[in-house]
Records
---
Amino acid sequence: MNNQTAVKLGRRLRRLDTMLEQHYSIIWDCCCDHGLLGMSLLERKLAEKVVFVDILSPQMALLEQDLQGRFPRDKFNWQVICQDVKDLQVPQVAPQLFVIAGVGGNKTIQFIESLCAALPNLPFDLLICSVHGNYAVRKALAEHGFGLKREQIVLENNRFYEAIYVSQNSTQPIIATGLTMWDRVNPDHHRYWQKTLAHYRKKAAADPKAFEAIVADYEALLITG
Ligand SMILES: C[S@@+](CC[C@H](N)C(=O)[O-])C[C@H]1O[C@@H](n2cnc3c(N)ncnc32)[C@H](O)[C@@H]1O
């Protein structure tokens, strides 16, 4: 970096950053906004190139300026693309990682589908941290041939997130409720489990056919705290 302080991440983004365990040809920070996570990955030289993508053009102009000041192009390989993630043109290179963090479950699933359509014959990795809808996101990941690498529950500003690192090269099954991320004696995890169950029980009361099986899946976890 160019006479600047190191990239400072909040708890959620820091956890995503430290979950990554390999070097990539390209890392895509999709829906990057301020681009902090991508900057940290650039700083750690975790990829030959980091591509920042977001649909908001004023924000992307600011990010471009920021990157020019902090990560000179003669030392760092980065690109800023102002576009809908669904329309991305993706080069056929491997290994690639797409980070999708900070958007809702439905959008996350749309991005998973469009990326799979863009790379039909080349396995790739995803690091996902949706703001909600993790059960459906995990189902979509399994349907698209992803296996688990790592998963963690993250608590930031009294909100719970699931950080889900997956790969089409992994054969470890993705469980819709999450499995290895739960610490059965952690009171915060107990709180998250109770909150999630309450959410799906309410939905099941209105639409039993759609949600009773999800409630049963979460009940079977039995996180005691
Ligand atoms: C809350 S920010 C997330 C920032 C960062 N990824 C994080 O997790 O802290 C959500 C960002 O998603 C962007 N976004 C929403 N829909 C998008 C789309 N279809 N394509 C690209 N960016 C999108 C928004 O412009 C916004 O900057």
---
Amino acid sequence: MTSSPNPPSAAWELLVPAASAPARARGRALQEALRDAVRAGRLAPGTRLPSSRDLAGDLGVSRGLITEAYEQLTAEGYLRTGRGAGTWVGAAVRAAAPGVRDLAPRPSAGVRADFVAGSPDLSLFPRAAWAAAQRGVLAELPHQDLGYPDPRGLPRLRTALAELLARRRGVVADPERIIVCSGVTQAVTLLGIVLHARGQDGIGVESPGSPQYEELFATAGPRAVRLPMDDEGLVMEPLRGSGVRAVVTTPSHHFPSGIAYSAARRAHLLDWAREVDGLVVEDDYDGDFRYDRAPVGALQGLDPEHVAYTGSVSKSLAPGLRLGWLVVPDGLTEEIVARKRYMDLGNPALDQAVLARFVERGDYDRQLRRCQRAYKERRDALAAALEAHLPGTEVSGIAAGLHAIATLPARYGPQEALLRKLAACGVAVRPLRHYGGDAAGDAIPLVLGYAHLTPARITEGIRLLARAAQELDHARVHSTRR
Ligand SMILES: Cc1ncc(COP(=O)(O)O)c(C=O)c1O
């Protein structure tokens, strides 16, 4: 057998959240976490696992749970054991493509507080109103509407969306230029494929930014060209120098820094697009949620021939619906529709009809108002808890969306040690660094999603975070005294 030495203890931190799951669920959570780590390639084939006694000690769980997990995963073929040779990761397991799991923001099971960014509160999904819309659609939908749909989307939905996007976001939205698609993800993929087919090898993406675009373009064809941001938006000089003619942006609420593009930068971006006969892709993923004033209108409204606008119901209703929209300049419509046709022949007709009815009857506006109230309260709870428990922390970005940046002063660090400590305490946070950004000096910028947590859970999570930071500080003071 060839096996690599034990991975650094950080690798076992993958199991820490599972180890703090409630006692009844702990054994199963440990098995799932270990299985996931092997499948995703975070534990490479050949990696030797610690003895059950050592791992149980490190994680603070009973040795029986670890032995059971090793036995179960050995039986399933994920792990191998040899007499006297210990336990190691089997060679036959094929790791999933790296990064794929990171695309969808979803809270992890078994963690005491998970500040994952980008997840709405799924318990706010309007089940009764949605069920009523479904019943209404089933009662009234003509038989022929159950045939293959128009690949652009049901005309009824495109008309409803055109009205909604014009009214709420200032989008110039002719139903003929709207393509209903499976979320922003498919919209950006379609654009990537079409622009690549037109000879564009590279497409600009914001850095820091959402990791998903790089993954999407890796399958769609073009290279993702990372372009730096400052506190007004994309920096123009690197964009001009990059040679790209299309760039994906989040101008209403940049992900993840939380800034809104300044008026000047919005104008410069459009000037650039006109100069190079290029395209700004506007990802308006959470543009409906603004808590201190009315949301700034979409960039697309200023120049519909140079901006492709996309959004979805993933933040307002539920990401599992996989419903979104793309509004494209005239010259791109036909090619995008052709790609959409060959990709999946259009989105499911019933779901589209339900969303159309939901929008037409004002239910969508009601849902947005309900989420807006809840998320504003949660953002306020987050800011108050940070002020109370982690004094000196700066909350930055506009009061909008589903996440905020909290920059902890350097005294709560160093960053690595704090992140390790938080993982060990079952508090899941992502540093800004995870998205390609960082702060000046030793300050610690964290991207904190709050929309999926109640105010009480937010306060409790920040209290846990603060306690971990204090314990770290305490340990440091002790070790320097010794
Ligand atoms: C920046 C950004 N854009 C778009 C989305 C949503 O993608 P989709 O509409 O495909 O669910 C997300 C989801 O987290 C996101 O963070």
---
Amino acid sequence: MAGSVTLLAGEPGVGKSTLALQLAAQAAQRGQRSLYISAEESPAQVQQRAKRLDALCPDLWLAGSNDVDAIVAEIGRLEPGLVIVDSIQTVAVAEVGAAPGSVTQVRAAALRLANAARVHDCAIVLIGHVTKDGSLAGPRQLEHLVDTVLNFEGDRHHALRLLRAVKHRFGPTSELGLFEMVQGGLVDVEDASGLFLADRRPGAVGSVVFPMVDGQRPLLVELQSLVVSGPGCTDPRRSVQGVDGGRLALLLAVLGRVCELPVLSAEVYCLAAGGVTVHDPGADLALACAIVSSLSAKAVPADTVICGEVGLGGEVRAVRHAERRLAEAVRGGFRRALVPANSPDIVGLSLIRASTVGEALLAIGLGAARPMRGSGPREADPARRHPAAS
Ligand SMILES: Nc1ncnc2c1ncn2[C@@H]1O[C@H](COP(=O)(O)OP(=O)(O)OP(=O)(O)O)[C@@H](O)[C@H]1O
Ligand SMILES: [Mg+2]
């Protein structure tokens, strides 16, 4: 959108410069003059990357500068349609005394650039670094100053990258872009479910396929759990990767107290395979089944997907976009789905409906969960207390 300012935020090394350079090159190849300002790397380094990405073209201009006034002057001289500023933390307004990257300087630079976007009717993309917990002050302070905030996420050790709009004044925020980082840059991922499930061993203990919805986009993701129970574990280790630690704690409490399973004193490791991060509460039931699968050393049937939100009473609640999730499961070749009780029917999938975690575990062959009695579970002899633990 001409005159708009977009913040492209992400962790160091995730691929922000690559994405922005590819964007600028595509705009330039369509005949829109694009200006890439690099305040971090030398123009020669950016040019080298542009060569690798096959991005060089006559309408793509590269400049190295960290002075905002010089950048604004360059925008005035070239009148580009798209400007990339890489990054907002390394440019500075000379008369503001603060150091580049400080809150004062980042705000002053962003305000001046936003003004230039309006005056020169160009779209400006500001690249901003954030740390994993989003704690670095600069970019977060900018969110209300800009028109659009795009978060670029992904695990540096995996090729997959997710681009999501967290704020968008000119369009929906429910879109999700999926890219893969390859030698030639970022490429669109068409079959994301296939990519996530590529390394899966069907029928493995502790593994469950969850039909996730991220934004509007359905994705099949493998959730894995490993439960290590041993006697005398007073402060058991809990480790998560790509799933929410708070949700895991809640699920363990439900499995331990409501279903009377011996998980409270066990070490529990959970992850979402493929470097994806699951923000969707509909993953609860799948994760609970993965945990019980590992605990009981029984596999969840390989042709089954699982979704449902779990409440503190052990009840299984409906999930958003149930039909979209299940349609993706059909597309991925799955035959059965363990789902909340009121889920709609879908052609091609046999549904197993459950209204509690206990019913769900029973239905999927992971043993019967007992209702809670008395003052709560005793974990002295898990093998005798629950068939799943034997
Ligand atoms: N020659 C290469 N071949 C393949 N992938 C590469 C190559 N060079 C860099 N990459 C990929 O690009 C990533 C870095 O991309 P990029 O520099 O765009 O990230 P960034 O978010 O801008 O990083 P920074 O925070 O350092 O500015 C690397 O982590 C790597 O995955
Ligand atoms: Mg960069």
---
Amino acid sequence: MFLDRLAGLLSPGTDAIGDQSLEMVRSFPIPEAWGGGLFQLPEPVITALLRLIQRKRLLRVLELGTGFGATACVIAAEFQMRGRGRVTTIDRAAHEPVNVRALAEHCRISPEHLDIVVDPSGYIWRLGRMIAAAGATGHLEPQFDLCLIDGAHEWDPDAGAFFLADQLLRPGGYMVLDDLTFRLTDVPDAAARFPGRTAEQLETPQMRLVWDLLVRPHPDYGRFTEIYGGRVGVAKKRGWG
Ligand SMILES: C[S@@+](CC[C@H](N)C(=O)[O-])C[C@H]1O[C@@H](n2cnc3c(N)ncnc32)[C@H](O)[C@@H]1O
């Protein structure tokens, strides 16, 4: 029953949720020569997450892997419209010419609702620092209601990212993993793009490993739901809410 309820929340709806914020992000003037796609997470998945965020009154979102910033800006724009909520998004690089700062400026999103972290040491190190800061008083205070892991898509670092993000996710919060079906070989010229990887590393859907071996058997997680044809996994951390 609980599973059905979460699946229901995450299934495509007929409400207009996210329409305005998605349109704001879509209207970003993409440089002609760029040739990239702004939305790296499919729009129906972003809408499903917005529905979950709204219905469950989630206010603090952590995104590991900002990309060009579309998902972070859509969620932050929704928070801004409602007057509360904040997205913290972490990436090792600010992409050029399209990046989250340019997108946030275009959408007029204030830093109150969007915390952009560019950290060349990567999210594993950044999460370590955040955990140290959150536990500075001797008691670790989890600060996020939803965490989206959508970065390297490799066992190393994302196995570690799950456990670190878990430390910062409050009981009752949601852990979301994108690209459960992705393999490095899905990227053209994978062996050259990912030098030093073994054939197993190139061929294995590594986020699926994180989901199947770490998230699903974890005693603190339940209500496992896969959406968008099994691409995205959503798990609820046990606790109130
Ligand atoms: C698929 S994109 C993220 C898309 C974004 N979540 C969205 O929905 O629009 C993956 C991003 O993860 C970043 N990334 C990969 N490994 C990382 C690491 N170890 N630390 C920080 N960022 C990383 C890449 O630079 C890239 O921008």
